[in-house]
Design a protein that fits this description.
Layout (H helix, E strand, L loop, with lengths): L5 E5 L5 H11 L6 H9 L4 E8 L2 E11 L2 E9 L8 H15 L4 E7 L3 H9 L3 E6 L10 E7 L10
């Protein structure tokens, strides 16, 4: 798979079944179809993008807008397609779109045990700004709060 083979577009309801497959292998507590449907319903306040390799969905990003902030809720890539540029492309697309809507900062929570995700976000300019004790109800695990300035030409890292 090359970058030329990858395309990003807005999520539609027909995307939910393949996204559920990616969810189940990506997260201890995966989103269900209703959660994706709610995200699509909130499209005025949310950004929901999918990335395709050819005509096959290989990942997505879901986020909310509010108070000049992009809050990244979830990003996932199918296991066979991890390690390339798909996640970086999704993140860059979401950041670009949020800048166009006036967002100045991107923020997210990530499990303290998810070293791969933490390294990914740090590589793309996010820094730790806090910690939420017992954030994940399934395990009681803490979450790190990461953020990145994205507005007014401020960019601490690559998109």
């Amino acid at each position: 798979m090359t970058l030329r083979d990858l395309t990003i577009r807005e999520m539609i309801p027909a995307d939910i079944p393949p996204l559920l497959k990616i969810e189940r292998v990506s997260f201890p507590v995966p989103w269900d179809a209703d959660m994706f449907t709610i995200q699509l319903y909130l499209s005025k306040y949310a950004e929901n993008l999918v990335i395709l390799s050819g005509d096959r969905i290989i990942g997505y990003i879901s986020s909310w807008y509010g108070y000049e902030e992009l809050h990244i809720l979830s990003i996932a890539i199918a296991p066979a397609d991890r390690g390339g540029e798909a996640a970086a492309m999704l993140l860059a697309a979401a950041v670009k779109r949020s800048r166009e809507k006036g967002c100045l900062k991107a923020v997210l929570e990530v499990r303290v045990s998810n070293g791969r995700a933490i390294r990914f976000y740090e590589k793309h300019g996010f820094t730790q700004v806090g910690r939420r004790k017992g954030y994940y109800f399934d395990s009681g695990e803490d979450a790190l709060i990461l953020d990145k300035d994205i507005g007014n030409g401020i960019d601490r890292g690559k998109d």
